[in-house]
Give the backbone structure.
Amino acid sequence: MPFLSVIIPVYNSEKYVGTCLKSLLEQTFDDFEAICINDGSTDSSLEILNTFKEKDARIKVFSKQNEGQGAARNFALEYAAGDFVLYLDSDDWLEKNALELLNKNLSSEVDILFFNNYNFFENTSSKYKNRYVDGYYCIFKDNIFTPLEAESVLFCTNGLPFKVYKREFLVKNEIKYSNTRFIEDSQFYIKALLLAKGLKCVDEYVVNYRIHGSSTTSNAYKYIDTIEKTYYACEKIFEEFKFSNSKNLLDSFLYNRYCQLFYYFKNMPYCYKRRYYKMFQKVARHIYNKYGNSFLKKNIAVNFFMSVVNNCFEVHLIKRFLMFCRLFLFSYFEI
């Protein structure tokens, strides 16, 4: 039985999957298996997977009809045999000593291990450090902690990447991805954080996270309805765990969900912004009517949130523009 199962869903990734698998085979730690799921690819991805499979028995390849990354990851977990599971996208790749670093920091007491990553922007070939674990590490360092001990910062990280999960923990608690083709990891992530008994972070850079125009995140405008439904689904999961009595935990959860809504609004193509704004307003009003806005600690976040709730976002933008003029333009002309 391998120590680590690396699960890689693959869909039309012929341009990147070779780099991903090569980074696995070059690891300084070798007690792993790679479960590669060909999710109905129509390019040469399957041929590339089979080539690597023939080179190394640790690489296992399965094929299924295309249903999205979430369904592919659920499918792969049924075949995984490792003590721990690392989910890796087919367009990302590992640092050379990544698995060795993870191995040193994993133990039977750890349900979820967090780590840092590099963001790689393909259009400029630039690479930047993303200190993903700072919200935890500045408080807990290398120590194991529980969700309630971290209640005020529990949801300071987001989504699937940059974590390792104990396989038994996932299977026993039936933690699965949603069947949506976008932000399919949100419900998985919320449920896993709330159920975990042992959390830990390592202040190391493990994964290179590729950002490019064809990535799912770059096509968020196609999934506005999914973003709305995901908020309500995550809220339902949170309420089922009866943690709503913890004000800090509730605030952490709400701020995380708000930041996700705001992130997609900020990056939404202009022609889709009006449609997204209407959805954002609907959810923001729901949050405000149910919880208020005390979870927003930064003044600018409160102003933005309330401008959306009260349907005066344009006024908010004008005020920000005038503030910019007052602070910067006047001083420019004085010079």
User: Anything to note?
Assistant: Residues 270-291 form the longest helix (22 residues). The two ends are 70 Å apart (CA to CA). The longest strand covers residues 199-211.
